[in-house]
Specification:
The complex is a heterotrimer of chains A (180), B (102) and C (659). Chain A is mostly helical. Helices cover 67% and strands 0% of the residues of chain A. Helix content of chain C is 72%, strand content 3%. Chains A and B meet through α1, α2, α3, α4 and α5 of A and α1, α2 and α3 of B.
């Protein structure tokens, strides 16, 4: 039995991701939840690496673990006045949520595992260093996916402007705002 | 045991997604819900990249890139909304913000 | 190009009903407030129609042996069934068109004077309806198939309703209009069923195609009906039944027994309306229809016998009831019913020409009598003959006209009624039915008797009123014209040179009166003269005394007659019983089921459901999210089970895929 690096990496990373994810949903201190999320995101970047998606792994670390986490942690820290140590970070729906989540995940697992995925489905992940998918991603973005690429920039612009408008403090004297 | 096929990645993605759903349904704080939402996004990304790898198509990568971009934008806007809600309700616990009801 | 070139201009025969219809549209949309303009439009339209119809008649006279001009186009198609409309110009329809339009023209001219006291929208409305009626009647005359004739049948019924109920604020008039419409509707139900059955048997509506198709049906019936399940009617019986159903339309429209009850009440309308619709034209539509489709009726001899007897009974009953009426219009109404019965009798025993001839002459003298009555009513403002008297001095033209009309009606030569009535009389005496002969003699006596009762009471004897009656030229001129036609119109049908017969029915004119029928003619003449003499003796000098005497001596007879043989009451009872029970059932269904369960029930259901379902909106987003997740689970399960993803072998093989 060949024990590949991929396999070991995969299992270790999976364990880390799952543990951190459970921490995200169950931590009492919201800051700890944010930091656990950072661990999850980095772990996911590692999973991407095991799948030979190096560009995406880089992107994941840069954007997610870099910017988004920082944003969230800033938001937590800036709104720290809101969060005291809550006695119970959960609402009363835990049992119901657990049951429904268990139902849907088992159902989905059943469907996934009993489905024949189309070929080619490689049974093992064998690493090669010859193909760089950055080139391929670049090509695809400007050829097949040019329109979504442009639209994404519009979307980001809209999101930024929207966030500014929503979170803006209304001025006291009523100049320059037209209803928030 | 050593060879990891597509099913492993799919199961990982599924577990991560389920934990995210659990978090969304259970977390009281709105920021906590956003964090669980990020878990769900990442689970989807793992799924897409796995398929992209095993079916030898680049589209999965592209889709994952877009999802990352959109998720970032969405969490940005979501945090802005949470700040706005805080100003109105002085509280961001999701089970207390329930005045739009019968 | 000569516009009288035969085929081309007759193709435009549809314009004959079109002119008055166009006048109706114009008047009702544009000139409803302008009296003189409305009257002008209406009269000129009907005049145009008269001229056009005369041109068509002239053309047919020149080429009487030519085949009938039939033009049909398919108007509607419903699957296999085609509904044609078109025109039929044969000698009968040309003559009828001419008479209808001419009489309508005269009556409209008369109406300008009779209706002058109406306020302006009433006056214009009257002319609009008169035009619509003329259009409908002319359309009926020109119809080449049962579908079209049914359409115009209903249209004339509608116009009759509108015109009888013209003074709609009077409750009696409104009731009479409703009664007319509903009673004729009874007949029309039979008519419609008959048309449908005839179509099912022959796959055609056209008058000229059906006789041949009936014969093929008789030889090889493609469809059979049964009343008792299992036992089917033979082809002959079926044909007779179907033709009787079609005759039911004529029973309603032409006021035969037992659906005659609407015609006396229809006298609530203005007198020119009574003259036009209920004397000359609309009620003749039933007779006309039977005459036009006579080839089809010939295939159903039993039905013809029934028609003859119904006609005879109607004639006799109506004549008896006319003797006791005090209202001059009622006398004339019952007289109309009686004459229609006579016409149907003639048609029933096979005398097509005689019946049609009487139809035409009756149109003239009955219209004349009604217009005279109108003249009197307009002058004296009363309908009761016991409030008239000595009009011979004061209304000379009316007197002469009424006398001519009465003589024509009684069958005195040389007036037109003599020739037509006695042709019928001769035909009756040539037929084998003894009862009909006896009835005919009675009817003859009573006809002359009742009309001269009216004449002597109203025009002779002493006057019983205070005002001075006047005559108006717009009224007297049509009277004179109609009187001329009543006098000389009969000469087209003299037995020794019957051009009318040759015109209407070339093949049938030979067998009937090869020899001049001396005995029946003489008999009828004697009876008529005897009746006039009796009426003179009783009513000329002291009418009140003799009237009172007769009522005293024949009290029971009078009560039967005054109660109209209780037929009205019979129909009232039937209608009220049937209608009341149906109404109760319908009211229950409407109230309890539709209102209660369906409408109110669904409202209450929505209300109650809302009351309980609203708690689902808890306001908490996470509640909604849980519901979403659970719903996804349910949907996945449902779809999966439906598509068989959860069968056992799949689970077994699925286990093999894991690792």
């Amino acid at each position: 039995m060949i024990v590949t690096v991929q396999a070991v990496a995969f299992y270790v990373l999976s364990a880390v991701i799952i543990a951190a994810a459970i921490a995200v949903v169950r931590a009492r201190n919201i800051f700890y939840a944010g930091l656990s999320l950072c661990v999850v995101l980095t772990g996911v970047a590692g999973i991407f690496l095991t799948l030979k998606a190096e560009f995406l792994a880089g992107m994941q670390v840069l954007i997610y673990a870099g910017a988004v986490i920082v944003l969230i942690l800033f938001a937590i820290m800036l709104t720290q006045g809101i969060h005291r140590f809550e006695n119970d970070p959960h609402n009363g729906m835990q049992l119901l949520a657990l049951l429904s989540v268990a139902a849907i995940s088992s159902l989905t697992a059943f469907i996934l595992l009993t489905h024949k995925w189309p070929e080619p489905v490689r049974k093992a992940v064998i690493p090669t260093w010859e193909s760089f998918n950055t080139l391929e991603i670049g090509r695809a973005l400007v050829r097949d996916f040019a329109l979504p690429f442009e639209l994404i920039s519009l979307l980001l612009l809209a999101a930024v402007l929207g966030a500014i408008m929503i979170a803006r403090r209304k001025s006291e004297k009523g100049n320059g705002d037209d209803g928030n | 045991m050593a060879m990891t096929g597509i099913n492993h990645y799919l199961i990982l993605s599924l577990i991560l997604f389920s934990i995210g759903v659990f978090g969304v349904l259970t977390r009281r704080s709105a920021i906590g819900i956003l964090l669980s939402l990020e878990l769900m996004f990442n689970a989807v990304n793992i799924n897409l990249v796995a398929f992209s790898h095993f079916l030898e198509s680049i589209s999965g990568h592209i889709f994952a890139i877009f999802i990352i971009a959109v998720a970032a934008a969405e969490s940005c806007v979501g945090l802005a909304i949470i700040i706005c809600i805080y100003r109105t309700f002085r509280d961001i616990r999701a089970d207390r913000i329930n005045t739009l009801k019968w | 190009m000569n516009i009288f070139e035969a085929t081309n201009f007759i193709d435009y025969a549809w314009m004959v009903p079109f002119f008055p219809f166009f006048a109706f549209i114009l008047i009702s949309l544009f000139t409803i407030r302008n009296r003189s303009l409305s009257a002008f439009i209406s009269i000129s339209a009907i005049l145009l129609s008269t001229l056009f119809a005369s041109a068509i008649l002239y053309d047919r006279l020149l080429a009487a042996q030519a085949p009938p001009v039939i033009r049909e186009i398919t108007w509607l198609t419903a699957g296999q069934v085609e509904f044609p409309i078109g025109i039929l110009v044969n000698n009968l329809s040309a003559a009828m068109m001419c008479i209808v339009s001419f009489v309508a023209f005269l009556i409209q001219v008369y109406s300008t004077s009779y209706m002058e006291n109406e306020e302006e929208t009433g006056f214009c409305r009257y002319f609009a309806f008169m035009s619509l009626f003329a259009a409908s009647m002319l359309g009926l005359v020109i119809s080449p198939n049962f579908f079209q004739i049914y359409i115009f049948w209903e249209l004339v019924g509608l116009c009759s309703y509108l015109l009888i109920g013209f003074w709609y604020r009077r409750p009696a008039a409104a009731q009479a209009a409703k009664k007319a419409f509903i009673v004729t509707r009874f007949g029309d139900i039979g008519f419609l069923i008959g048309i449908i059955m005839l179509y099912l048997m022959t796959k055609s509506f056209s008058f000229n195609a059906i006789p041949a198709l009936i014969e093929t049906f008789r030889a090889n019936p493609g469809i059979m009906w049964s009343i008792v399940p299992g036992q089917y009617l033979s082809a002959d019986t079926t044909i007779n039944v179907v033709m009787f159903l079609i005759f039911c339309g004529a029973i309603g429209k032409s006021a035969m027994f037992p659906l005659h009850v609407w015609l006396p009440d229809a006298m609530e309308g203005p007198t020119p309306v009574s003259a036009l619709i209920h004397a000359a034209t609309m009620v003749a539509a039933g007779v006309y229809m039977v005459a036009q489709t006579y080839d089809i009726f010939r295939a159903a001899p039993h039905t013809l016998t029934i028609i003859a007897f119904i006609g005879g009974i109607t004639a006799f009953m109506a004549a008896t009831m006319a003797v006791v009426q005090n209202d001059i219009k009622r006398v004339l109404a019952y007289s109309t019913i009686s004459h229609l019965g006579t016409m149907m009798l003639a048609l029933g025993i096979g005398a097509l020409v005689a019946g049609t001839f009487h139809l035409m002459t009756h149109a003239f003298f009955k219209a004349l009598l009604f217009l005279c009555a109108g003249s009197i009513i307009h002058a004296l403002h009363t309908n009761d003959i016991w409030e008239m008297g000595n009009l011979r001095q004061s209304m000379k033209v009316t007197n002469a006209a009424f006398l001519i009309g009465a003589l024509a009606m009684s069958g005195i030569p040389p007036f037109s009624g003599f020739w037509s009535k006695d042709e019928i009389f001769a035909a009756i005496f040539a037929s084998p039915h003894l009862i009909l002969k006896i009835l005919a003699c009675f009817v003859n006596f009573l006809t002359a008797f009742y009309i001269f009762r009216v004449y002597f009471t109203a025009f002779l004897s002493k006057d019983r009123y205070d005002i001075t009656p006047h005559e108006y030229p717009a009224m007297t001129i049509p009277l004179i014209i109609l009187a001329v036609f009543s006098t000389f119109g009969g000469f087209v049908g003299t037995p020794w040179n019957n051009c009318f017969a040759a015109f209407i029915s070339p093949e049938g004119s030979h067998g009937a009166h090869a020899a001049f029928p001396i005995f029946p003619v003489a008999l009828s003449l004697v009876i008529s003269l005897f009746a006039i003499a009796t009426a003179y003796a009783l009513y000329a000098r002291e009418p009140e005394r003799f009237e009172a005497l007769l009522r005293e001596r024949y009290k029971t007879v009078y009560s039967v007659l005054l109660n109209k043989y209780w037929i009205d009451d019979f129909w009232n009872a039937v209608v009220s019983v049937v209608m009341a029970s149906l109404s109760r059932a319908a009211s229950f269904i409407d109230g309890a089921i539709i209102d209660g369960i369906i409408v109110n029930g669904s409202a209450r259901l929505a209300d109650e459901a809302g009351k309980y379902l609203r708690y689902e909106e808890s306001g908490s987003v996470q509640h909604y999210a849980v519901i979403i997740v659970i719903s996804i689970v349910i949907i996945l399960l449902a779809v999966g089970i439906m598509h068989g993803h959860f069968s056992m072998d799949l689970i077994n093989s699925g286990g093999a895929l894991i690792r």
